[in-house]
Design the sequence.
């Protein structure tokens, strides 16, 4: 990660933490993230957007940070932004779950020492990893094509669909290993799991993106699909 | 596991040209063969194809030229195996030698072993098998009992391996054996490179539920191999095997071995599939795209000299789940009878039958999840 992005993330963490409305985020200049430096902006790329939105997904999932950064962008870019929010929130759900099972004891042992709990969390971690990878690969593609959503249509569809499909397992396992405490208003878990449920349906649910991607793949043909995937990256 | 970033997949040279050249080579050299052999193609044996592939420089690519290799970067090899698997090329004969035995001999083997085995591996002519599992040592590999005692003439081996894929056509076995009498668990184990034509070795087929002869039982009855058969350090077998498994788990074969079915599904669906079929194709496409990103990132990390044990396990877990899910979901939606003879029906049947093995071979699902849980700090 570049030094500039590190600083950007530090700022995002500092500004977002505890923010109860969008005003401090606006004041900190996040609307300028994608504006070129020549026009007085930050001159960031989608990798920066991804990093900032992953933090927003953890700290301020209910504030319209993505809307602020993207202004009047194409809805497909909003779908892409949602993938980053989801990756962040899923990482947080995993972190909270690990923390919890390493603290809570039952039957005289930490929950995390029970193999059934370990195996569930491994399954969840794989889903989180998949979404993080999808977000990162989508960001790389968007930056490679100058953020033209038409040139990244395949990646947007694939990444949003993959993220949507991870929501079920991630929220279910996170709540299961938390027990009743995770179902309370006081405890932080719902601060990421409810947004995840909401984001699954926002800017294209599973059926929406699966149809688009499925028709695109079918149009390419069996062999053509592989050729397209390899031609689009690495 | 926190703070995940994709490791850049950046092979040196012109990867696109490497891909194009190989596609052209495959168009001219891949045997038409049966469509079913294109699925699970790293279990498809074809000695002529392996030899031709070796002659074209696509086997042992990462080995140094002085041992007959191509001195290529591991990510160039990745591009090549990705293409071979996506095309369903019959790479089973040389697969294990190329993927893991060759690199392991290069890393830990003596100069004599390298000169003796690597050139044949790079020609695609010398095949290897993996001698880990035993009747009493499956998931619990540290329970290995096959013993090798050092004598004046060499190592004397007694015991049994099981589930050994390709032992019946392989020239060598890289075996994990107990070299220290009275040692327990993962101490006192070493790796021996055993020529399979040595007297005292009996190889018996085990027919799998698909009716294929892929794996075997291998018996060692007072088998004498030279002192020089020891690979790496005596007593360090456990450590070396663990490194070998890293090579085995994260490759594109963990999500591309059923690729032929996806290709057949899409081709059968035609350019304008009905909504249910389009949904399925879309979901499968999203999954292979994602898996490919994870697998490439893990390969890049491995190539950079890191040990991505947890990432490799994530690729295997998700890849296995995808490959077991796919035939079930395809069957749930397409209209085919079990005995239908078209490509799609035959691939479907073959993969439904093969798929239980995906989460067993190379480490069971439970063992893999245990490794991931350790990476999460839970064990
Ligand atoms: C097609 C195929 C090819 C193979 N090729 C080779 C080869 O070339 N060389 C080789 O050495 N081996 C090979 N194997 C063997 C493979 O590595 C073993 O099958 C595997 O390690 C599991 O061992 P097992 O079959 O004895 O099952 P077991 O270890 O008996 O396990 C049975 C079930 O119990 C579960 N289990 C076991 N212990 C635990 C635990 N502590 N906690 C939770 N669950 C547990 C397992 O996950 C599994 O689901 C092959 C297997 C297959 C299917």
Sequence:
């Amino acid at each position: 990660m570049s030094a500039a992005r590190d600083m950007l993330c530090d700022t995002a963490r500092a500004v977002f933490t505890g923010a109860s409305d969008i005003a401090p985020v606006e004041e900190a200049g996040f609307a300028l993230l994608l504006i070129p430096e020549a026009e007085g902006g930050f001159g960031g790329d989608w990798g920066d957007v991804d990093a900032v939105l992953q933090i927003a997904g953890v700290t301020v999932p209910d504030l319209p940070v993505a809307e602020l950064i993207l202004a009047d962008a194409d809805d497909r870019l909003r779908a892409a932004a949602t993938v980053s929010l989801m990756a962040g929130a899923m990482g947080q759900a995993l972190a909270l779950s690990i923390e919890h099972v390493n603290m809570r004891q039952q039957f005289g042992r930490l929950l995390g020492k029970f193999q059934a709990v370990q195996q569930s969390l491994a399954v969840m971690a794989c889903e989180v990893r998949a979404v993080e990878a999808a977000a990162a690969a989508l960001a790389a593609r968007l930056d490679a094509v100058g953020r033209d959503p038409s040139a990244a249509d395949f990646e947007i569809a694939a990444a949003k669909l993959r993220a949507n499909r991870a929501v079920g397992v991630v929220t279910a396992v996170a709540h299961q290993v938390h027990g009743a405490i995770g179902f309370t208003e006081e405890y932080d878990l719902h601060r990421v799991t409810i947004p995840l449920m909401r984001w699954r349906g926002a800017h294209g649910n599973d059926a929406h993106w699966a149809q688009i991607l499925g028709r695109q793949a079918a149009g390419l043909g069996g062999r053509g699909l592989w050729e397209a995937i390899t031609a689009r990256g690495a | 596991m926190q703070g995940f970033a994709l490791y850049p997949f950046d092979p040196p040279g012109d990867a696109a040209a490497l891909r194009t050249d190989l596609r052209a080579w495959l168009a001219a050299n891949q045997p038409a063969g049966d469509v079913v052999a294109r699925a699970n193609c790293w279990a498809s044996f074809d000695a002529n194809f392996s030899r031709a592939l070796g002659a074209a420089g696509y086997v042992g690519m990462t080995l140094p030229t002085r041992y007959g290799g191509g001195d290529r970067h591991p990510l160039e090899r990745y591009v090549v195996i990705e293409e071979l698997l996506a095309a369903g090329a019959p790479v089973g004969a040389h697969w294990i030698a190329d993927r893991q035995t060759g690199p392991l001999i290069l890393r830990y083997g003596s100069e004599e072993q390298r000169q003796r085995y690597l050139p044949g591996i790079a020609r695609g002519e010398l095949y290897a098998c993996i001698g880990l599992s035993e009747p009493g040592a499956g998931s619990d590999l540290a329970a290995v009992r096959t013993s090798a005692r050092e004598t004046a003439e060499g190592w004397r081996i007694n015991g049994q391996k099981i589930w050994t894929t390709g032992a019946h056509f392989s020239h060598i076995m890289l075996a994990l054996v107990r070299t220290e009498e009275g040692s327990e668990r993962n101490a006192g184990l070493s790796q021996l490179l055993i020529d399979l034509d040595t007297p005292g070795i009996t190889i018996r087929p085990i027919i799998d539920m698909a009716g294929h002869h892929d794996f075997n039982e291998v018996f060692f009855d007072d088998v004498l191999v030279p002192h020089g058969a020891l690979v790496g350090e005596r007593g360090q077998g456990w450590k070396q095997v663990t490194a070998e498994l890293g090579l085995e788990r994260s490759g594109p074969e963990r999500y591309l071995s059923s690729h032929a079915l996806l290709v057949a599904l899409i081709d059968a669906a035609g350019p304008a599939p009905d909504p249910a079929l389009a949904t399925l194709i879309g979901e499968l496409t999203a999954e292979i795209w994602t898996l490919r990103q994870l697998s490439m990132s893990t390969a890049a990390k491995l190539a950079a000299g890191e040990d991505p044990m947890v990432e490799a396990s994530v690729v295997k877990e998700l890849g296995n789940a995808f490959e077991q899910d796919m035939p079930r979901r395809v069957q749930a939606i397409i209209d085919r009878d079990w005995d239908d003879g078209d490509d799609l029906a035959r691939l479907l049947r073959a993969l439904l039958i093969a798929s239980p093995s995906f989460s067993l071979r190379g480490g069971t699902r439970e063992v893999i999840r245990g490794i991931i849980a350790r990476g999460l700090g839970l064990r």
About this structure: The pocket of flavin-adenine dinucleotide is lined by residues B 129-133, 138-139, 163-165, 215, 357, 360-361, 364, 366-367 (CB under 6 Å). Chain A is about 70% helix and 0% strand. The domain at 3-232 of chain A is CATH 1.20.140.10 (Butyryl-CoA Dehydrogenase, subunit A; domain 3). Chain A touches chain B through 56 residues (CB under 8 Å).
